[in-house]
Amino acid sequence: MSDAPKRPRPQPTPETKFFWEGCARGELLLQKDNATGKCYFPPRPFVPGTGSTDISVVKASGKGRLYSYVINHRPPPGFTAPYAIAVVELDEGVRMMTNIVDCPQTPEALVLDMPVEVTFEKIDDEISLPLFRPAKG
Amino acid sequence: MLKPREIAVVGAAETTSLGKIPGMSNIQLHADCALNAIRDAGLKVSDIDGIACAGESPTNVAHYLGIVPKYVDGTGVGGCSFMIHVRHAAAAISAGLCKTVLITHGESGNSRIGLNRPAPNPQALAGQFEAPYGPFGPPTMFTIPVLRYLKTYGLTEEHLAMVAVIQREWSSQNTRAAMRDLTTVEGVLGSRMIAYPFRLLMCCLVTDGGGALILTSADRAKDFPNKPVYILGTGESVETPMISQMRDFTSSAAFKVAGPTAMNAAGIKHSDVDHLMIYDAFAHLPLYGLEDLGFCKPGEAAHFIWERNTAPGSKLPLNTNGGGLSYTHTGMYGMFALQESVRQMRGTADAQIKGAKVSVCHGVGGMFAASGTIVFGNE
């Protein structure tokens, strides 16, 4: 075991457990409001704004676009600068924070609205983090 | 409904010094400015019957000062908590819950002596869905929406830099400002990269300091030594604890509730505003504030500032103390914006706007998480 600092590790709660279980299987799961067909994020067992519990869990396409980001030059433990802290907008309409991998961490390479796709980084048996990379083809 | 001019600020003071204060802990900074404000109002500690604060619990501040109050408010939603304290205090005094409310801010943001900073919680939504991706403090989070904002409106880093340039023109007139040397767009863009596209001079200072306000009913205010500064209108809101979940990356939903609520309550138009403070932890905040409060149309605020419409000598003087970028920024800057509005309304500011009668003071909390707005008047 290395003692090198690592990324902060998320701790699932009863409401988010399904999401992290999905990630561990390589699936990006979202919740959908059955009344409107719209997805929402982060997870909770009801629709924000209405409180409806008429929801379903759906597997996201894993595709989206780079919505915004910063490139951090002052890294916390567990990170090597410079690296982008990004927000992607999934095709399903929700946005999530992530890192962009397989891509130089430069303004020239990180072009807003470029297509991205999900990839998972295994942290341990319970947690795999959804990251994104430039979409292939 | 609270009416305009029902409540007034009768005491206002900052800590005895600002910047680096290694001789005071966090709680003593609260007490230092509190005692200064009580002296400013010509009151005794025992006259205070309401306590509001953030960064320390009201229990800590009341105990430290030796007060057992009838009213407490520990609203802690970041740097605009103090605007919200003013709003709640005004309502409480109007409702007869108490008579004289002390609002304090103190933060050992630089020296970090006795500073209360909660540890990140890996089970919170932000702990699960943001922290793993390496955000490291406000410079890497508050700034995340900005590339989207710039792209949406066809703006550049130069526009962000100009916000900092103009505020140095203001801070150069303030004897207590930390950074008083004039700078240029090139100077700002040449400063050290913190989190692209943000350079050092587009980010706030990190200082020690504090400030306190004392509010009472307007009918008592004429008995105090200073010119009363009246509360004309107030507003507050919250949006999200996660910057990635901001509804619109070009606009703050909380700003759009707090700002118009305050201005409508005051019964003022934009053209009535003589002086404006918009909490500037980073250079983009005045842009969002000018647009969300309706002083500019969406996408026009950067041009408005570039064309010197908020600079010294303009019709809409903005952040006349130099702001969080150049005056001081302890971590929760909102109290310093309020202090500058009160000074402008009293006629005692270093960069005094002659004849100013209405000041709008707009705050942000967290990373676009919360908002509070106060409209002050002196007539």
The main β sheet of chain A shows up as:
5 strands, antiparallel
- How would you spell out the order of helices and strands of chain B? EHEHEHEHHHHEEEHEHEHHHHEE
The end-to-end span of chain B amounts to: 20 Å
**Unreliable segments of 5+ consecutive residues of chain A:** none
Count of individual beta strands of chain A? 8
Proportion in β-strands of chain B: 15-25%
Number of helices of chain B: 13
Give the averaged pLDDT of chain A, no decimals. 96
Low-confidence stretches of chain B: none
Proper CATH architecture of chain B: 3-Layer(aba) Sandwich
Give helix % range of chain A: under 10%
Annotation, overall tally of beta strands of chain B: 11
* Rg from alpha-carbon coordinates of chain A: 16 Å
Spatial sequence of strands, sheet with the most strands of chain A: 6-5-4-7-8
Task: Kindly name the structural category of chain B.
Answer: alpha/beta
Give an overview in words.
The complex is a heterodimer of chains A (137) and B (379). With 137 residues, chain A is mostly beta strands. Chain A has one domain (17-134). Chain A contains one helix and eight strands. Chain A has one helix at 17-24; strands at residues 29-33, 39-40, 55-59, 63-72, 83-90, 95-98, 115-122, 128-134. In chain A, the strands form two sheets. A five-stranded antiparallel β-sheet of chain A has the order 6-5-4-7-8. In chain A, strands 2-1-3 form a three-stranded antiparallel β-sheet. In chain A, β1 (29-33) and β2 (39-40) form a beta hairpin. The N and C termini of chain A lie far apart (38 Å). Chain B is globular. The mean pLDDT of chain B is 97. Chain B has 379 residues and is α/β, with parallel strands linked by helices. In chain B, α1 packs across α2 (58-65). In chain B, the strands form two sheets. Chain B has a nine-stranded mixed β-sheet, sandwiched between helices. In chain B, strands 5-6 form a two-stranded antiparallel sheet. The two termini of chain B are 20 Å apart. Chain B has one domain (7-114, 205-377): Thiolase/Chalcone synthase (Peroxisomal Thiolase, Chain A, domain 1, 3-Layer(aba) Sandwich), CATH 3.40.47.10. In chain B, 31% of the residues lie in helices and 18% in strands. The chains are: A mainly beta (137), B alpha/beta (379). Chain A binds chain B through residues 7-13, 16, 41-42, 67-76, 78-79, 82-83, 85-87, 95-99, 107, 112, 129, and chain B through 120, 122-123, 125, 127-136, 139-141, 143-148, 151, 192-198, 242-245, 249.
